[in-house]
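Appendix B, record 7
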Amino acid sequence: MPMTGTQEIRRSFQGLRTLFETYLPKVDPRLINELLSREQKGQDAPFYMVEIFTKSGIDEEAKREYIIRKTGMAPSIQDMGTHYVTNHRLTLELLAELSEPEDVLEITGSYSGGLG
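C-alpha cells (predicted):
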C-alpha cells in the first residue's frame, strides 16, 4: 500500500533527525533546522548568538583562543568556564567545526537578526 503524504513527511523528518544525530550529535536540532531554513531562503551565513557548553576543568584560555580562531569573535565566558557565548555569522560547516572537540557537550543558539 502506498504511503500517504503525511506518512511520507513523517518518515522523511525522522530520517533528517537521524542525520542530525549522526553528524552533529552535540548541536541542538532546532538550531540546525533554523540555520538550514535561513540558508534555503538565501541568507548566507546569518548572525547567530551561539552558546557552547563544555566539560568543566578545561583550559579556558585555550578554548577562548580556539573560538576566536574559528569565528573571529571573542566569546564571553560564563558558568566557571563551561559556557562560551559569541555573536557571529554561522554556517553549517562552522557549526560542525565548533562541535568537533571532545570537551564540547552541547551547542545551542538563536538568530540575532540583521546585525552587521
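Remarks on this record: The helical segments are 5-23, 29-40, 60-71, 92-99. The longest helix spans residues 5-23.
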